[in-house]
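Budget justification, computational time. The allocation requested in the original proposal was used primarily to generate structure tokens for proteins on the priority list. As evidence of use, we reproduce two of the resulting records. The first is shown immediately below.
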Amino acid sequence: MRTLITGGVKSGKSSFALRLAEEFAQPRYFLATAEAFDDEMKARIAKHREERAGRFTTIEEPLEIAAALKENMILDCLPLWLNNMFHYGRESSLDETTDSLIAKLPGNIVLVTNEIGMGFIPADPLSRRYGDALGRLNARIATACDRVILMVAGQPLLIKNESNLALGDTIDKITLGDTKIALDDADRFKAERL
């Protein structure tokens, strides 16, 4: 199953990804996108390596993640990969690179991302471009995944599963508890690709 885990910083995304991926058959892989540009990041990377020691084969790839994909893998994380794409001047190839990533997604993978667009609008143009790009990336990856989980305060919330809408499907009623609400034409929602 293809699973996207999203949420805020330190919400438990990586730990939950490890728990989910324990269900994968061996060999299991961990695709790490982070580069250690400072001591704090080096410490974070070392802590994450310890958490998965002996359970996963680690592949470190900051840019060419589509080529590094394998079955039974965790990809952690999309925001740092996107940061690397910006840092190395590859922002203009994001659409094409994302297309390749989605086309090569294996059947069993857990992808980790951050939900950063739920607060204020950044003051500078680069941060706004990055936030917009991550929002689009997350939406495209979520569409390609079977399941999407939002982590809030260490708690997983299921946002999407295999029975959710497919592209082009239309909602004409909503069920809230045991109440079904019919929607008129103005309220109808159609799932579309972003």
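The second record produced under the same allocation is shown here.
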Amino acid sequence: MKYERRYTLKIMNEKNPETEVLSHREVYNGKIVRLHVDAIRQKSGESTVREVVRHPGGVAAIPVLDDGRIVLIRQFRYPLGKYIWEIPAGKLDSGQTPRDTIARELEEEIGYTAKTLTEACSFYTSPGFCDEIIYLFIARGLVPCARRLEEGEHITPETRTLRECLEMIASGEIMDGKSILGLLWFQRASGYADCAKRPSAVHAL
């Protein structure tokens, strides 16, 4: 069952124009996603095909050390065939809340437990064809623990200042969408003009 979050998304109060489904097929049901192909009727009377990826949702976090540095990860992504920079993240599992899931992912991926997990925002990743939603947290009070990577995960944690993270976005080193959104959200919340002079400003959150 998909997590019923306490977040309230601002949704335009408009009637759904695509409710008449002519046919529905589930063409794939895998470990992470399901693929549905629906034929729908438009107001004009014409039919349209919608290919929809159903995803259980995910979580991500900006882990902030006591000195203000942020813990990033270098992770190998098979579809890209290379390692990329990301913030810690993971898929929602049935029966777990986003908070429980990101707490587990922080232990597994970077080897830290978080004393506080602050809900930041939530966002759709690719609404043109997928219903995946990611819940973003700010993790503080990080305490080292043993990492517990899952089989097939190739992850190395590294620390960077907020300024370095933003420079990595500008240079194209960080290209992962959730990571860019999360870091830019954190930049705005912490006040980057101050952070450039006073790294301790990130503690204002």
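A brief technical remark on that second record: The first strand starts at residue 21 and ends at 29.
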